[in-house]
Amino acid sequence: xxxxxxxxxxxxxxxxxxxxxxxxxxxxxxxxxxxxxxxxxxxxxxxxxxxxxxxxxxxxxxxxxxxxxxxxxxxxxxxxxxxxxxxxxxxxxxxxxxxxxxxxxxxxxxxxxxxxxxxxxxxxxxxxxxxxxxxxxxxxxxxxxxxxxxxxxxxxxxxxxxxxxxxxxxxxxxxxxxxxxxxxxxxxxxxxxxxxxxxxxxxxxxxxxxxxxxxxxxxxxxxxxxxxxxxxxxxxxxxxxxxxxxxxxxxxxxxxxxxxxxxxxxxxxxxxxxxxxxxxxxxxxxxxxxxxxxxxxxxxxxxxxxxxxxxxxxxxxxxxxxxxxxxxxxxxxxxxxxxxxxxxxxxxxxxxx
Amino acid sequence: xxxxxxxxxxxxxxxxxxxxxxxxxxxxxxxxxxxxxxxxxxxxxxxxxxxxxxxxxxxxxxxxxxxxxxxxxxxxxxxxxxxxxxxxxxxxxxxxxxxxxxxxxxxxxxxxxxxxxxxxxxxxxxxxxxxxxxxxxxxxxxxxxxxxxxxxxxxxxxxxxxxxxxxxxxxxxxxxxxxxxxxxxxxxxxxxxxxxxxxxxxxxxxxxxxxxxxxxxxxxxxxxxxxxxxxxxxxxxxx
Lengths: 353, 239
Hints:
The complex is a heterodimer of chains A (353) and B (239).
Chain A lengths: L1 H26 L6 H26 L8 H18 L3 H23 L4 H19 L11 E2 L11 H8 L3 H29 L1 H11 L1 H6 L4 H27 L1 E2 L1 H4 L2 H15 L5 H17 L4 H17 L3 H10 L24
Antiparallel strand pairs in A: 1-2
Helix pairs in contact in A: 2-7, 2-10, 2-12, 2-13, 3-4, 3-5, 3-10, 4-10, 6-7, 7-8, 7-10, 12-13, 12-15, 13-15
Chain B lengths: L3 E10 L2 E11 L4 E5 L6 H9 L6 E6 L2 E2 L5 H6 L2 E3 L12 H11 L5 H14 L15 H14 L4 E5 L7 H16 L3 E5 L3 H4 L5 E6 L2 E6 L1 H6 L1 H8 L4
Parallel strand pairs in B: 3-8, 3-9, 6-7, 7-8
Antiparallel strand pairs in B: 1-2, 1-4, 4-5, 9-10
């Protein structure tokens, strides 16, 4: 009974902590400098990308090295919506997610025929094909890319209201709006991931990750579940890509489809935070961003240090920073396990209670 | 009508014929043992029944319905449960969660129904004390029990057991046989591949002898054991 009540308390505590953190973060633009809001925007965007990649690799066993494809598709869709069709950027963001999800269907059709390292390479190849294809799209700048028309984000729905409420410049109000949007996206991604993983489908997904053959033999359909997760993460990654590049205001094929920025760093974040856990990517994103800020003046040394940290974590703390913390304290945030009902809980000696 | 029928089922891996024109019936509630030397095609036969591999020729019927082209998932949901020769637990999930996957997907039970069913099976298979433990760290006996328990959680009408007594001590084997007899007594049909003959013959009513992918003989354990041909190919005794 103690285990169950601990778990319930842990879940209640997790949600209370997340709610409190969300409120504090939502209120930050009212008193924090604009630079802090911009930094937090990027941490939250990386968290969203990491949560999505973690769903793929940590829970579905799909190690994709091509998630930058959906960042790029999302970003270009939003830019195309604004530049070519005069859409409000917010509408563009929503369409970006839908387009990324729709395009993930043919990507899944081809890449799901492969497994393991072959799947990883195939996703990378698809992303690079897309990068080359988008560099041919002259209407959005071709290979040299393009910028958003002047004042686009400032005219975005809700920006004027924020400007009046906070008494800040239009640029700062636009930053705040995008920050709130990415905060909302991070919260939705976190809660949706938790609910999905706690559901019947999440249980099946974890079974597939552990043993595909055994999962099939108990009625789990691996293809259907993996495809569902691939589509949903493409949606989240596409929206995130759109938000990132709306905030940057400029897009090029090389930046939107950058394997280093949107996949390699994301893998690093998940690995150091704790793959296959929900708090892991959040912790990883914060640590990564701090390291990035601290080491950004050291050129390529920065990448070497990141690599060494990644290797050290993989060798000495395979469950990442969150796993290490959980092991030492016994506390779990957002626990995913399904505990056996009280009647089969056991005492320390193993006897039935 | 038999619950499971195989009709002229054959399977080749390249030039090697591993299953050769196999035909047999299994009645509801019946327990059939399959014996044969290593490489006789016993596990391949299981994979053909569960749909993990498709035959080159022949048909598999479940309750008279041709399921030859059905996926392993569909066959599981139609009532075919199985255990693996080498235990294949979902290593990061607990013992209870392993069963929960099977009950939610294979038996398609609601959350509450699955919970109750898993508790019942955990008690029946002697795994209750390990319910919350990670399945990756279990002892061999517990892993074998888990294989059995997980197959049971799919609510099968036919359960396929692949060398489930292999590697166990005499005492452990006896405990497992008692559990299997309990499952059989509840009306579930069983097909059991086993080299531990004294365990097998305590449960099954019939034995099927497989050699080089072909059915050599089907009969009661006494009839099979009395066959000179079986003794020669399987037990190594000269006719």
